[in-house]
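User: hey, got a sec? need GST N-terminal domain-containing protein folded
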Amino acid sequence: MASENIILYHYSYSPYARRVTWYLTLRGIPYAQCVQPPTMPRPDVARLGIGYRRIPILSIGRDVYLDTRLQFIKLENMDISLPRLGTSQPDQRAIERLLSTLMTDAGVFGWAASLLPSDLPLLKNPTFQKDRAEFFGTQPRPDPKHVALREVASVFNLLETTLLADGRDWILKTPGPGLADIEAVWPLHWLAGLPGALPKDRFGPQVYPKVYAWIQRFEEALQQARKKAGKPRTVSGEEAEKLILASEYHESEGPVDEGDFEVAKLGLRKGDEITVGPTDFGATRKDVGRLVSLAGDEVVYETKPEGEGKQEVRVHAPRHGFRIQKGREAGTKL
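Assistant: Yep! Here you go:
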C-alpha cells in the first residue's frame, strides 16, 4: 500500500488527530500527512471544496472522511492483510462503542480542556483565542476547574476500579493495545502529559496506579510501533490535492434510503444540493455539496475542488452529531 493512498490532514498537538495517528501507527498502515495550522483558515482543506473546520480529516483515495469515529470505522473495514485493532465479538464491540461515547460525547474532552494550564503560550495567543471563540460559538462556557477535576477523577476511578482492576495490560485483554484502548486512553494520556494540568496530590501513579501503568504501557507500545513504521511522508496542500484527485474512489456509490426518517422528512433525492455540518463545536463552518448517498449512520456528498475542470471528491460524514439540510443554508461559511 503506497503512503499517498491515505492522507491525514492534522496538526501534531490535536488530541483528536492523535487518535487517528495512533491507530495508523499501531496497525502499521502507511500514510502521508498534510500538516495544518491550528487555527482557520486552512486553504489546503478548502482546495477540496470543504468548509468543515475540525481536525483531523482523512482521505482514502478520492473519498474524504470527517470525524474520528467514522474514520475508525473506515480504517477497520479496509481490506488489507494487517490485523485489525478492533474486536469481532459483539459484547466487546459494545465496550468499544461505550468507551467512545464516554470519552467523546459525555463531556470528558471538555472537562480535560478546562484543565489546560493557563500559562500555555498558545492560550495567550490572540489569534488562537479568536479562532476558538468561533469554534465553540454559543456552546456553554467551560466548567469551573473544580468541577472539571471532579469529573475527570470519576473517569480515572472508573477505569481503575473496573476494566483495569484485575491487572490486565489492555482493556479487552488483547496481546497489544487495541481500538478499545485508543478509545479510552486519549484524553487521559493528553492530561497526564501536560505538566500542571492535574494536581499531583490527587492524581498520579500513587492514586491511580493501574491507570497510569496502562498509560505508560500504551506510550511504550506507540514508541515501538513508530520505530517500526518510520515517519509518515509530509505533503503540501497542493500535492495532497493532486494525489486525491488522481485517485480512484475508495468506496462504491451507495443509495439514498427512501425509508430513512430524515430522507422522508426533508424530501431528499440523490443529486440534491445539501448543507452538512456538525451540531456542536465548529458548527459555523459547513459544507455544501450534492447528495450521493444517505443510509444508516452516514451521509455522503460531492464537493467541487477549487479551479476549472477538476473532479469532485466524495465527503463522508457521520449522522450522529451532524445536521443535514436540503439546499444551501443561508450564511454558510465555506
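Quick note: The chain has two domains: 6-82+232-326, 90-229. Let me know if you need anything else on GST N-terminal domain-containing protein.
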